[in-house]
Write a structure and sequence with these properties.
homodimer; Tetracycline Repressor, domain 2; 2 domains; 10 helices; elongated; Regulatory protein TetR (chains A, B); DNA-binding (chains A, B)
Chain lengths: 219, 219
Amino acid sequence: MTSSGESDASTDTREAIMEATFRALAKHGYSDLRMRDIGEELDVSRTLIHYHYDGKHDLISAFLEYIVDQYEGSVAVPEGADPWSELDRRIDRCLFGPGFDDEFGHWERMKVYHDLFSQAQYDERHREVFAAHYERIRGSIAAVIRRGVDEGVFRDVDADATAQVVTDLIHVARERRISLGQEDAPEQVRRAIDEFVLSSLVDAEFALSSMRRADREAD
Amino acid sequence: MTSSGESDASTDTREAIMEATFRALAKHGYSDLRMRDIGEELDVSRTLIHYHYDGKHDLISAFLEYIVDQYEGSVAVPEGADPWSELDRRIDRCLFGPGFDDEFGHWERMKVYHDLFSQAQYDERHREVFAAHYERIRGSIAAVIRRGVDEGVFRDVDADATAQVVTDLIHVARERRISLGQEDAPEQVRRAIDEFVLSSLVDAEFALSSMRRADREAD
């Protein structure tokens, strides 16, 4: 979005426009959003929007890349975490949010995200951004499952199929909370992921030998 | 929607308005829809829309109830079907469609449905219709699971939690096909439902005794 030669002032302006777009989308929703709603959220001159973006569609596409980048940058996993901890952490972050340190909480961001997601059927460019984002979440979960299998901590499962169903359930938990107002959907889906999906990762022999080792060490 | 004293002509008009709304939504999407787009799809005078509905919101609410009714009436399960057949049939109908016998296919209907679903976050009335519909699908799947448990065909699982995860996966399969254009999502999710969820229903002892009985009968 930002070319390397761009001045700091220009980067600041774009950031300000993106945050104004956030506030306007959170207030009005995508379907009722007009360019002037974004202008009204902006402290600087609204003509700057037209200088930087070629209409509503171009602005919303840029905004989509902006929130997806923010979201992806927010899942930090400590170096050396074991596969179970990393997997839990990634799932929990997606379901319960990373706690953004600003005026918008996780669910304010998710509302805007899911609003735009549903409109992606009408827009090839948005569809590509969402598909790539979905794929990166799935990929990061598949990678930790694959690592767990390699390290002998997880059973030898199909990492891609397992990661897909986890990612799908995360998505639907957010939808149910946002569109249907089911506040407990993320907690409920977290239990379903444990019971129906992660249970397939448990290597009974490995779990047993770990327990035996712990017993011996306790003696 | 239709009071019992209403004339057939009035019912026909409402039906015509509902189908015009369908065509207009499929063409323009909810966010760009104007009342006059619906009028343009209508053979009769567009002033009839205003006679029957109190603005765009009232019309869309009535339309939502109309497609949800259509959809719910379409899942026919033969009398006396065993629990596995009924469960498969219900899941397949939701995932692959009942093959409506008119100009719109299942996916045209689903596109409109999911478009409105995402907008339900902004509308209490729509939210209630969707939540009730979601709950009825979940309930019909829970009922057949409960029956299977009672008949000793399924293991004694938590029918509500199991039905919830099946319904959630159906929802996300449709979303991925519609919003992300992933044509193979329904087939892929069908396999995931079998592997991760329905596998929990298999009563190993019951399966074994059935096999033994079949063996004896074959002798």
